[in-house]
Design a protein that fits this description.
CATH topology: TIM Barrel
Oligomer: single chain
Strand order of the largest sheet: 1-2-3
Order of helices and strands: EHHHHEHEEHEHEH
Shape: globular
Radius of gyration: 18 Å
CATH superfamily: Metal-dependent hydrolases
Number of domains: 1
Length: 235
């Protein structure tokens, strides 16, 4: 029989939230400690009544869960599933939410965070992810977090950094632009230009926004990748 090449286009990886502290620039660690305390309190509140379930789930899956941040264990999990390669998004823990980048820079990233903290959290994750992808790089296409609406010039610099450090899966931008310019504004042209130059697909995650908040701009989210051409992430 012919063999199939299986590539997962929607994997997730991330450190337990508290471990991101070491990947942050020292100037942002005190703010991170405050953020983490608030986040853990929120998670405890959300999980009230489900603590037993979460604890059992984590205990039963402890070894496999290490694959969210341990490259060796991750390769074993991929091999066990017959997956040759993967495209890697952030936020590895869907049960307790305890493996998300600093300052909400992951899938639920928004414009409510101060620009310096948004980029600090994104860069901490990108630095860590670049290290993960450097192990078995032939089978990993990591996606860089880039909060483009906060600062276009800083976003362009982060995209170049990400590509130079092996994150070839593209960039993930916040689902909504908040009070800042919408993504069809010409102010973002440098971002799209550098993505096209470096062959970096643009990803977004629409979950945080109700349909009506997209207004007449919903089509943007359907055509990012097609605008950037044909990409071959895993070779």
């Amino acid at each position: 029989m012919d063999r199939y090449l299986v590539i997962s286009a929607d994997c997730h990886a991330g450190l337990p939230s508290e471990q991101y502290r070491d990947w942050l620039d020292p100037a942002h660690r005190e703010a991170f400690d405050d953020y983490l305390a608030r986040r853990q309190a929120m998670i405890r509140q959300l999980m009230a009544g489900d603590d037993d379930f979460a604890q059992r789930w984590e205990e039963e899956n402890e070894e496999g869960l290490r694959g969210a941040w341990d490259a060796g264990r991750r390769d074993k999990e991929l091999d066990g599933d017959g997956v040759a390669g993967e495209v890697i998004f952030p936020d590895a823990d869907s049960v307790t939410g305890g493996a998300s980048p600093p300052f909400g820079a992951g899938l639920s990233g928004s414009t409510d965070v101060a620009p310096e903290l948004a980029f600090a959290g994104a860069h901490a994750h990108n630095r860590w992810l670049a290290g993960l992808c450097s192990e078995s790089p032939e089978r990993r296409a990591g996606i860089a977090l880039v909060p483009i609406s906060h600062d276009v010039d800083a976003a362009v610099a982060e995209i170049r950094w990400a590509r130079e450090h092996g994150l070839r899966g593209g960039i993930l931008i916040p689902a909504m632009w908040g009070t800042r310019a919408p993504y069809h504004d010409r102010a973002y042209d440098p971002v799209w230009a550098v993505c096209q130059e470096l062959d970096m697909p643009v990803h977004t995650h629409s979950g945080p926004a109700p349909r009506e908040q997209y207004g007449e701009h919903l089509g943007i989210y359907w055509c990012f990748s097609s605008l950037l051409g044909d990409h071959h992430l895993l070779q």
